[in-house]
Automatic annotation (TrEMBL):
It catalyses: sn-glycerol 3-phosphate + NADP(+) = dihydroxyacetone phosphate + NADPH + H(+); sn-glycerol 3-phosphate + NAD(+) = dihydroxyacetone phosphate + NADH + H(+). Its main location: cytoplasm. Sn-glycerol 3-phosphate binds at K105, G134, K189, D242, S252, R253, N254. This is Glycerol-3-phosphate dehydrogenase [NAD(P)+]. NADPH binds at S10, W11, R31, K32, Y48, K105, A138, R253, V278, E280. The active site is at K189 (proton acceptor). It is found in: Cytoplasm. Catalyzes the reduction of the glycolytic intermediate dihydroxyacetone phosphate (DHAP) to sn-glycerol 3-phosphate (G3P), the key precursor for phospholipid synthesis. Belongs to the NAD-dependent glycerol-3-phosphate dehydrogenase family. Keywords: Cytoplasm, Lipid biosynthesis, Lipid metabolism, NAD, NADP, Nucleotide-binding, Oxidoreductase, Phospholipid biosynthesis, Phospholipid metabolism. It comes from Adlercreutzia faecimuris. Pathway: Membrane lipid metabolism; glycerophospholipid metabolism. Transmembrane segments: none annotated.
Length: 334
């Protein structure tokens, strides 16, 4: 069976390796010809994983049509702000039944739309559109270190299709029908990881990090419930699981952006220029704000991250303001 993967960054490459290890032929779309050349000739993505040998079952190309040719399903693994454009391009090369798994974490700028809704607008047939999310740093998944994730879809058949394509002894995949919950968890945890990074960068300790993580989970839960998702999803792999790993792992770009860039007055553009990698939380703190206002949900940490990253608020002063709000019950708004 052939599966297509759109995006040969860290996560697209790691997922292509998982699929190929499971016996699939993988068509991998990459933007840069030199990445395609290295993958096909040397079985390496020299840009992101120079030390990992990729399966010979992965064939890269810069052509959507070639990537999708005879594929039974497609994984979309680009940064979330590119999803609409990818969906538009895919509309020319996939039929109305092709299962689509979105592996990006974020929400659309300006509209606040979540990935499945964006893809549905471009491709139609929501039941064939699923999302993948969980505590899954690509650096560990590509090495076959034990990890688990959630495939969420309104259709159990689509969820099971992708679960079975991805699951193996070291990559457990669970299914869920709470797409909105899983999508919001994915967008949120990146914002909180920036907050935790800033907190460590300011010299605060583990108590502060744990407070941000758990109060971040409370924000996440309020938003998930307001948008029609299930609070329990926030306790699962896509919620607490991914929150913990992104806030605590040395691999997290979001945390590193907060700790090493934001507290030193360095910008998102600086991070991207230095690392060629995305910081999804930097955009998500703005897109979640659109949703928060629409649903009347209180997101104090998310709003503080937005003020620091986009409005030049001083991190230490912003942290003090965060602690100066009226005292309330722990699970207000739920
Ligand atoms: N890296 C990880 O461990 C994980 C990442 N994700 C999510 O997967 C998504 C992709 O992230 P990564 O693979 O980490 O990306 P990355 O940060 O490793 O690399 C950026 C990718 O975006 C591509 N790109 C940049 N501008 C582009 C454009 N204009 N058109 C097409 N492609 C463009 C680059 O070629 C590269 O493939 C993000 O939403 C991320 O949150 C999800 C789980 C794990
Ligand atoms: O989503 C991820 C891990 O599950 C990756 O997080 P970062 O983008 O912060 O590296």
């Amino acid at each position: 069976m052939k599966i297509a993967v759109i995006g040969a960054g860290s996560w697209g490459t790691a997922l292509a390796q998982v699929l190929a290890t499971n016996g699939a032929n993988v068509g991998l779309w990459a933007r840069k010809p030199e990445v395609v050349k290295a993958i096909n000739a040397e079985h390496r993505n020299t840009r992101y994983f120079p030390d990992e040998e990729l399966s010979a079952g992965i064939v890269a190309t810069t052509s959507y049509r070639d990537t999708l040719l005879r594929a039974r399903g497609v994984l979309v693994v680009t940064p979330s702000h590119l999803l609409r454009g990818v969906g538009r391009a895919l509309a020319d090369v996939v039929d109305a039944e092709m299962p689509v798994l979105i592996c990006s974490k974020g929400a659309e700028a300006d509209t606040g739309l979540l990935p499945v809704a964006v893809m549905e607008q471009e491709l139609g047939n929501r039941d064939r559109i699923a999302v993948l999310s969980g505590p899954n740093h690509a650096e560990e998944v590509i090495k076959g270190q034990p990890s688990a994730s959630v495939v969420a879809c309104s259709s159990p058949e689509t969820a099971v299709f992708f679960r079975d394509a991805l699951a193996n002894d070291t990559f457990r995949a669970y299914t869920s029908d709470d797409t909105v919950g899983v999508e919001l968890c994915a967008a949120f945890k990146n914002v909180i990881a920036i907050a935790v990074g800033v907190s460590y960068g300011l010299g605060f300790g583990d108590n502060t990090a744990a407070m941000l993580i758990t109060r971040g989970l409370a924000e996440m839960s309020r938003m998930v419930v307001a948008c029609g998702g299930e609070a329990l999803t926030c306790m699962g792999l896509a919620g607490a699981g991914d929150m913990v790993v992104t806030c605590m792992s040395r691999h997290s770009r979001n945390r590193r952006f907060g700790e090493e860039y934001v507290v030193r007055g360095r910008t998102l553009a600086d991070f991207e220029a230095d690392n060629h990698m995305v910081v999804e939380g930097a955009l998500a703190c703005k897109t979640l704000d659109v949703l928060a206002r629409e649903h009347g949900v209180d997101l104090p940490i998310t709003d503080t991250v937005r003020a620091i990253v986009w409005e030049g608020a001083d991190p230490r002063e912003a942290a003090l303001l965060l602690g100066d709000r009226p005292l309330t019950t722990e699970f207000y708004g739920l």
